[in-house]
């Protein structure tokens, strides 16, 4: 058994898997679009921090600093002498208490902060929240077609969609991940009602050169995730993957050790793939494992043997076993019963989380 057991949700058939996956995607979407980011927290605390600093800097009204460390400054005029925090007349008798300048300073700090709030500053510019998702191709696209397009709570206009991998073929080919997703999902979205997602795909003009295509797509990721100098790895809100009968995920194949061990690049070229189109690009294991959530979607009896190896023999080092370990605690599997036949693993009942309730048979 794998040392880090992922959540495995089992379903009767393909349609049930599609419904649950769609619910999980919407749950991840809602979390990404509503969670308060660090800049918001800094902005909301700016005024309070300024006031607290002003209060901390002011001595207490009832405390007179020691003359040994804080020399007493005398200010004389015709009628009285002002001594630190007390007002004394010329006879030395205490006069009326001095006005509380701590409160005055607090009010001034409030006014300054209100003035700052009315000016444009980096703290006041709240970056639009976006849902960043990575998709692989194959049967996963059909799952999303079946599940997501039926829902009315998908905020497509706030989605940034990237691809976990791409087969380097023309977009009109049936083997193109982007082409399939475009036909099955993007072209069918009611954009007037739900908005239009931002879709980031490879440059079709570069598909004859895997290395150049990979480098170019990495630049797209760097631009989308605030620049590589400020982030070591991109962080997707959700990374969706399938798993092929031979164990490959995205375009990371079991026997391609160089790509599996890549630790620095975000995107790698893949040449000589053992199945399907020969040339591809793929996001790397560190990028996948750095995501907030990773979900595998697997169905069909042909996947049962590889699932058995993944769940029961992690030492074999299949790509998805590596992800189960590397993203421990953030990995979920959505699997139909056919794919789990003869697999020794604890199955969980999926609990629907989004507001739109759907009954699974």
Short note summarizing the structure:
Helix content is 34%, strand content 15%. By secondary structure, the chain is an alpha/beta fold. α1 (14-34) crosses α4 (139-148) and α2 (38-57) runs antiparallel to α3 (101-117).
What does this structure look like?
The chain folds into two domains: 242 residues, Rossmann fold (3-Layer(aba) Sandwich); 77 residues, no CATH class. It is of the alpha/beta class. A seven-stranded parallel β-sheet has the order 1-13-12-9-5-6-8. It is globular and about 45 Å long. It has eleven helices and 13 strands. Helix 1 packs across helix 4. 34% of the residues lie in helices and 15% in strands. About 23% of the residues have low confidence.
Layout: helices, strands, pairs:
Layout: E1 7-11, H1 14-34, H2 38-57, E2 74-76, E3 80-83, E4 86-89, H3 101-117, E5 131-135, H4 139-148, E6 159-163, E7 165-167, H5 177-184, H6 191-194, E8 198-199, H7 210-224, E9 238-241, H8 257-260, E10 267-270, E11 280-283, H9 285-289, E12 294-298, H10 304-312, H11 319-326, E13 331-336
Organism: Tetrapisispora phaffii (strain ATCC 24235 / CBS 4417 / NBRC 1672 / NRRL Y-8282 / UCD 70-5) (Yeast)
Protein name: Glucosamine/galactosamine-6-phosphate isomerase domain-containing protein
GO biological process, one term: pentose-phosphate shunt
